Amino acid sequence: MRLVTRFFGLLVAFAGGRYVGGMNPTLESPGVLQRRRFLSRISIALSGVAGAIVGVPVVGFLVAPLVRRVPRAWRAVGRVTEFTVGETVAVTFEDASPLPWSGVTARTAAWLRRDDDAGFTAFAVNCTHLGCPVRWIQSAELFLCPCHGGVFNRNGTVAGGPPPKPLTRYPVRVHNGQVEIQTSPTPIA
How would you list the strands of the sheet with 172-175, edge to edge? Predict the structure, then answer.
């Protein structure tokens, strides 16, 4: 018991107080008041540490999108000879910023049209209203969004429904005989 009393006295002294030894201190004795001050200081310090442990990741989560560069990369989607002039086809490629655990969700798609011998146009598969996938209807030459009735013309402009703007276009280039699309994060409104 003597060792415990001495240890507690050292802790109180460390906290800036003075411990008056004794087995049954009263509530007004200096030892009890010092102990209360010590415990309140420890409680405040531990609360501050816990707040920092929780707060730092939250602040990082909120600030990171503001300072992080948007990744962009050129992804090959096929050889030039695989695409017919005037035809619109779905192509898939790896997302601009896949995570190691993404699996098949790291793959995304686009609608690619060969305009002429050297020109290609690529549209995002996501409707600009709420990001639902659009599909190409060859016979009508329209992109349709089945979720909310969005309709887009052949060139991606809005023909009807709630979409606020045209389909997003991806930059396309031909490099070493391969058609490449410059990827970016999901382009929704």
Answer: 73-79, 178-183, 172-175
Whether the Cβ atoms of residue 177 and residue 80 lie closer than 8 Å to each other: yes
Whether the pTM exceeds 0.85: the reply is no
SS (H, E, C) the chain: CHHHHHHHHHHHHHCCCCCCCCCCCCCCCHHHHHHHHHHHHHHHHHHHHHHHHHHHHHHHHHHHHHHCCCCCEEEEEEEHHHCCECCEEEEEEECCCCCCCCHHHHEEEEEEEECCCCCEEEEECECCCCCCECEEECCCCEEEECCCCEEECCCCCEEECCCCCCCCEECEEEECCEEEEEECCCCCC
Instruction: Please write the tens of the pLDDT for every residue from 18-36.
Output: 545 554 555 556 666 688 8
The tens digit of pLDDT for each residue in 114-165 reads 888 878 888 888 888 887 888 888 888 888 888 888 888 888 888 888 888 8
Domain boundaries, the chain: 2-67, 73-183
Class of domain 73-183: mainly beta
